[in-house]
Predict the structure.
Amino acid sequence: MERPNNDILDKQFSIAADAAVAFTESYYTALHRHRDSVQSFYVPRETLPDGKSVPTIMWNGNAVEDADAFAGMLSSTIPYAYFDIQNVDCHVLHPNYPKPPGATPIEPEKNFSMMVRASGQVRVKEPREGPLRQFGETLVLVPNTLGAAGGAPKAKRQSWLIQTQLFRYVV
Amino acid sequence: MSPRLPARRATNQSSQRGTAKRRTGAVRTDRDGDLVMDGAPRGITKSRARGGAGRDNGKAGAKHHPSASLKKEILRHIGPTNSTSRAPGPETNKSSKHFKITGWKKSKAATNADGGVAALIAFLEKRATISSQKYANAHADKRKHEVKISKSRVQGDAFFISVRADEAPSVSRVNGYAFAGANIAVEEVAQFPGDDLPMDEQISANTSGSIRELLKNFLERRYDRNAKLLNLSNLEQDPELTSLGMFNTASTQSKFFPALMKICDDVFTSADEKREFVQSVTLSGNHLSSIAPVSTLAPTFPDLKNLDLSTNNFTSIRGLQGWRHKFKYLDHLVVAPNPFTENAVELQNELMKWYPRLRFFNRSQVRTDEDVAKLVSPTPMNSLLVAGPKFQDEQQIAENFIKNFIFGFDSDRNALIDLYYDEDCSFSYSVNTQSLNDPSTTQRHTKGEWDAWLKGSRNFIKVTTEQGRKVRLFRGLGAIRGAFNSLPMTQHPSLATDPQKWLIECVSQSGVPDPTGQFPGGVGGFLITLQGEFQEVSRSSGQTEKVRSFERTIVLGPGQESGRLRAVSDMLLVRAYGGFAAWLPETGGGPEVIVAELSRMSGMTLEFSKQCLDENEFNLEKAYAAFLNAKASLPQAAFL
């Protein structure tokens, strides 16, 4: 494997930590009150060369097909959800993430995939009175290499996209 | 003869006026069919009740001259002002002072559903109260000073408020404060907008006496029972609505539609009735450039099948954005003609994505029944019931790893590290001290109970420095060994005998680094999440401590040598004991799903599991509890 040198790895760890905090902040805010933008946080549906398809989304044991299905599920089954994030941690997963052909080049210190784990509480159904649940979530994020071809206007484009997501109520 | 509304909600024909069915309270109607509530006091405070179907109708002369309180009620619901009275008392208090607030539209709160108005009111009252209290304290005034906004209203970018005159200086001092990230300007103005107009000119009093009933009549005229069509086209040309002054100002117009929808909610009281009686709505010819003024159509008729938005002023699909994800059952949508800038194909493709059951678009068929069937049921969504674990293993690789891993973590961490970690593996742990507890737990929080975990806890919410985060990431054999050997010892419940205490999921994960270098882009591996509990055992004393809940995510990939595995990434979260009820599957699935789940949890055969569920109302939790009670006395044949 082309392992980036230690300087770059160190930079990656630092960038990953900041990115994980920023990403979780905007993602859980979107689930709360910017539902229109939820799709923009996910990799587009795609079958990889090994035959596996992404994204992988598991919501309390329910397999959800892709970002559109996820947004649809949210609006039909959890019309309200407020997330309070208590813990965020993250590791760099692949330090030299493969770029698809034609993708916009990314500096080596930003070209990695990462695993993010969040822990917190979510209030569903309605503000203040709704049931409060403890949840745990694992996300694998990959750099957004869709560039301008990604369609979304630049301001709405996420730097990182969810490739794998496992969400669970834990209490 | 106009079409009738559903029979059991028939209106009083002799007076050509509907009589709203009151939900509660002693009700009778006067000779005109107007509602009168026995013994109800009349006045502002009484009629302030929000959202109620009732209104306070001054009996004397009500037919031609709505009483003052009725007028206020009308104003509040559908009148031309959207000012909101928030405190009892005469609204045109001579000793009121008025302020104009600007700059708040730039705040973060402006994206709230109400445009941030509620937050702004709360903010202004709080800030002004603090200021007022400070001033009072400084002048040895012991009374409680609470600033209340008596009246407020949004007009464009400006927000107008009224307060008692003696509170005005405190309000002035809020000028320049930051409200949700935006500095706001507060300036006193001579007049509250709209106060200069006499009430009678704001609404031209109509002979029928009640706007509510007018709307009901209107609804009746516009409803075609045979076609199940609600025709809301060309509203501005409706002579009766125009005579009411309903379209004199933008704000009246914005109140009209929600009020009409409220009447619809009263007339068609259940989702079934709405689905049955109103299948089509046309909003053609209403100069709409956005659905915002009529957005309440969606919550009122969520199951609508046919919608006509033709001949409006839509220039972009963004104008319809608010109805994306609404109208799940929409079958036919008409948007042409409209001055859309998007090309027709683009528009059609996008709208077809929004409405998976849409078969007809602008009067031509765009999907067959089969297309719709395929699209709407690729994977049954199971609503959002908590389902059993998903475990997508291959050749039991992940399963065997997990068994070894849990055993090794409890009994010999050094051997575990030798087996499953290398120099490029990462481990970190964190503790969530704020998590919810299992409500039935008898464990109480004790001071310092998390000391053994807190020092190295890698929680970015608390550890915000680059250095702090770096030293809490354990990378490579030496660092991971050090961390493993500093953490308390653990005793996890058995996977074989206590499976219900575990929730283990596994999905495939691509792009896992390949240590051999053969596949620089990465290889396929597994993402494994473990949820469960362990008994903490003190490293120094060997004493058993509390039972903790934990969550752990491991990315499993191939090791350097053929046939070896490694935990590329291993992240542990520890929290107070939270039990395992959260991941018991909710019983929304078919009976066989529940039987299978009980069998998995208990180890009983499917037959015994079904019997156990039959005896316990098919309730999984009850059945499992019953199983635990009876476990010892069950015959060997009960188990798999």
